Amino acid sequence: PDEIAVSRGSARLILLSVCIGQTIVGVDQRAITVALPTLTETFHTAFTTIQWTVLVYDLVLIGLIITMGRLGDLYGRRRFYSIGFLIFVTASAICGLSQTTGHLIFFRALQAIGGSMIAANGRAIVSVNLPREERGRALGLTSTAFHIGFLTGPSLGGFLIDTIGWGWIFYINLPFSLCGAYLA
What we know:
The chain has 184 residues and is mainly alpha-helical. The chain is 85% helix and 0% strand.
């Protein structure tokens, strides 16, 4: 009763969407860490203040993940997953345009709300929609996707800051978030 029959092609698209979502949540959790000195200079603020861009994302993401999973169970995983992408992509764009530290911290919190919706519901969607015999491998791939994002985030963030500017650590999310939302 928990399983939904989907075609092999649909199962692959579901898995691709969830892997994209897990990767961008991981990248965004870590890419900003290398930007802290640049952001401190850009916004003419204390390092301890700009650290809140990292802290607020982690606190909100971790703090809401169980709640967003439960809300997805109650009101529709796909709905919460898709809305999570839309919140994430919108907040990412606004983060890159932020003119003050307060705005950046606020929109990072909003971004984390979207990230928690993606992270909480993505794996549940995979669990329900993929055949039992493929589920373990698929969940392993989603975990791998998150950790690839988490591990490559600092390098990608450093590259983007050095080549095209700090805003691009957020703008890089846009095409991937839109693709993930479309697939969702």
